[in-house]
Specification:
Number of strands: 7
Oligomer: single chain
CATH class: Alpha Beta
Structural class: alpha/beta
Number of domains: 1
Strand order of the largest sheet: 2-1-3-4-5-6-7
Length: about 170
């Protein structure tokens, strides 16, 4: 029963074709999959009615898990996406911790609380007269790993202790 979704032979990659971030994210995922010898299955999650079909396809193809690439489209569909993964017993990894808080397996991505605090600093500078065009562009500096152990148990997964130790938050 010990298996970790990211170590399976085939991983479904859920994406929204309309997302401006797809190209950069896809290139990184594709490079990592080649290095690890993992086969990728593209799962278009563009339309609400297409979500169920993508999860059905992933389950029927017996993927080891799903990596959901970031998209603003998914923010309003968090409960639905988490429920679809649970119904199909598919381990899924997301960028945003809100998916894990809603019952998803794990997330690894920018700490949005930290990003909001940084945004407040920029708003303050602009309100004090700084020109937005003169302010430097910042990349996220705080990245967090969140794991939901309750979901892992439901899926029959054992998360290695070394990964749990690296997590910023473990939901039990």
């Amino acid at each position: 029963m010990e298996r970790l979704a990211i170590l399976e032979d085939q991983v479904g990659v859920g994406f929204a074709p309309s997302s401006i971030r797809v190209a950069g994210n896809w290139a990184a995922v594709e490079a990592a999959s080649r290095q690890l010898g993992i086969v990728l299955m593209l799962l278009s999650l563009q339309k609400t009615d297409g979500l169920d079909g993508a999860f059905v396809r992933a389950a029927s193809e017996r993927v080891g898990g799903i990596l959901v690439l970031p998209s603003a489209l998914f923010a309003s569909r968090i409960p639905q996406m988490v429920a679809l993964a649970a119904q199909r017993r598919l381990p899924a990894m997301y960028e945003h911790r809100a998916f894990v808080e809603a019952g998803g397996l794990m997330s690894y991505g920018p700490d949005h609380g930290d990003m909001s605090r940084r945004l407040a600093v920029y708003v303050d500078k602009i309100l004090k007269g700084a020109k937005p065009a003169d302010l430097p562009i910042e990349q996220p500096t705080q990245i967090e790993l969140v794991i939901n152990l309750k979901t892992a148990k439901t899926l029959g997964l054992t998360i290695p202790p070394s990964l749990l130790q690296r997590a910023d938050q473990v939901i039990e």
